[in-house]
Amino acid sequence: MSMKITLAVLILFCWSSASSQSNKFYIYETDEYKINFPTEPVKTNEEVPSAVGTLLITVLSYEPGEAARDSNYVYMVIDSRYPDSSIHSDKKEMLDKFFRGAIDGAVKSSNGKIISEKTGNVGKFPSREIEVDYGNGEAIIKIRMILKGSRMILVQTITNKTLYPNISSDHFYNSFKLK
User: Fold this and answer.
1) Which residues, at least 6 apart from 36, have a Cβ–Cβ distance to it below 8 Å?
2) Which of 45, 150, 171, 177 is nearest to 88 (CA)?
3) Is 3.40.1000.10 the CATH classification of the domain at 25-178?
4) What span, in angstroms and rounded, lies between the C-alpha atoms of 50 and 117?
5) What global pTM score does this model have?
6) CB of 140 closer than 8 Å to CB of 133
7) Alpha carbon distances (Å) from 101 to 10, 54, 75, 114
8) CA 131 to chain centre
9) Residue ranges per structural domain of the chain
10) Sheet order of strands, 125-134 included
């Protein structure tokens, strides 16, 4: 076989492998966003009383388990709807304080230590991304927080520290798209 034909076959094989790999993800979609989970996530809805009023919270989670041979322990999206009067992505003067509270709450509830923190945007909406040392160095929690209007969307993975970062986690985060 000539070198050109071998190269063409190899490229075709790699392309078809990549195409078939992307088809094994479960696309979760709402009116606000879509994201690819490794498989269909478990969905729960709650109404949670808070200092700013009742929050409507949807939690999507997938825990692969050891048999799945996945690099991550958990894939999760937490979608919280706040009352419009409490926070909104257009209220620029409130954003730093709001995100600081969310970050501090996430670190405290996990009994972790912050490793990194980045300020940014997802599309035109403000975001923060943190990495948290969890379990005294056993795992890394990565959380991307996006505030779209009065809706806070958290995209999160928990990964064994020795396997962080990894392709599965990167795919999960990169698949998140706002509408």
Assistant:
1) 22, 25, 26, 27, 28, 171, 172, 175
2) 150
3) yes
4) 26
5) 0.85
6) yes
7) 50, 17, 23, 14
8) 12
9) 25-178
10) 42-50, 53-62, 72-81, 151-160, 139-148, 125-134, 113-122
pLDDT at 4 over 60: no
The structure tokens listed for 20 are 């078939």
Q: Which residues contact 67 (CB under 8 A, 6 or more apart)?
A: none
Return the percentage of the chain with pLDDT > 70, whole number. 87
pLDDT tens per residue across span 6-59 = 333 334 333 333 333 445 899 999 999 999 999 999 999 999 998 888 999 999
The distance from CA 2 to its chain's CA centroid, rounded to whole angstroms, is: 45
The tens digit of pLDDT for each residue in 59-96 reads: 999 999 887 889 999 999 999 999 988 999 999 999 99
The whole-angstrom separation of Cα 16 and Cα 59 is: 33
Inter-CA distances, 66 with 15, 71, 110, 137, Å: 29, 9, 22, 20
Backbone angles phi, psi at 97, to 5 degrees: -65, -40
Number of Cβ atoms within 10 Å of the Cβ of 75: 26
